[in-house]
Give the backbone structure.
Amino acid sequence: MPEVTAAAVKSLREKTGLPMMECKRALTETAGDEQAAVEWLRKQGIKTQETRLGRETSTGRIAVFIDPAKKVGAMIELQCESAPVANHVDFKQLANDLAKQLATGPGAKTADELLAQPSPSAGGTLNQQKDDLFNRMREVFNLGRLARIDGECGGYAHHDGSIGALVEVVGGSAEAAKDVAMHVVAQDPSAVSKEDLDPAAVAKEKEILTEQARQEGKPDNIIAKMIEGRLRNFYAAQCLLEQPFVKDDKQSVAQFAKQHGMQVKRFIRWQMGK
């Protein structure tokens, strides 16, 4: 069996990011073949992952990718075990690669479908990129929710990856659509417009406001007008288009959209763990 040199161990460590002793063992097991050693380490990592599958993955990152030229956007939720790993540059890269491939590739309905596709930044598949990252960090990663919009859209993810949003639009600019997505992240609307709200929720709010007005001693003949006025505050809190625009509260989101020749069709908003 050929001798495993310190230089060979160092080279494998630089390539994989794994501890020296693990690299030396891999080279010993594969008679000094570096490529075979990489594969051996990957298989050992998969075995280790299988023993940790039940561990809780309560944190992670939401990543968004938008291609305005191709009129497509995607958002993914990548889960891990701890905040330090969620903020690691390589974990961020994996999350961003997953979102980019989901948007620009053939699409995927499940995590396994997406992970089997090529990585935009690393050689091999996204699943291999994920396994290699597990080998270095020894935390379980789970690819959670996936969403893709085929059409004009904007997207935004909070800098810490805790919240993200996609907004489907017609017309306007990519920057304006991104601004609306940023608003969705910040203000958490329940629906695009009044017409999209759950009728049961609106009826319940009317019931509450009517009872409040009666307790204030208001006569029945003016309660209806009062309720109409007070419902405007409810709509402003719940409906995207009715909300004061987060970057300019002197206008509503509807006014901002109209100013930019844009119609907002729908939005998707996710928060890590919710």
Notes: The domain at 6-50 is CATH 1.10.8.10 (Helicase, Ruva Protein; domain 3). The CA atoms of residues 158 and 164 lie 6 Å apart. The mean pLDDT is 88. DSSP finds eleven helices and eight strands in the chain.
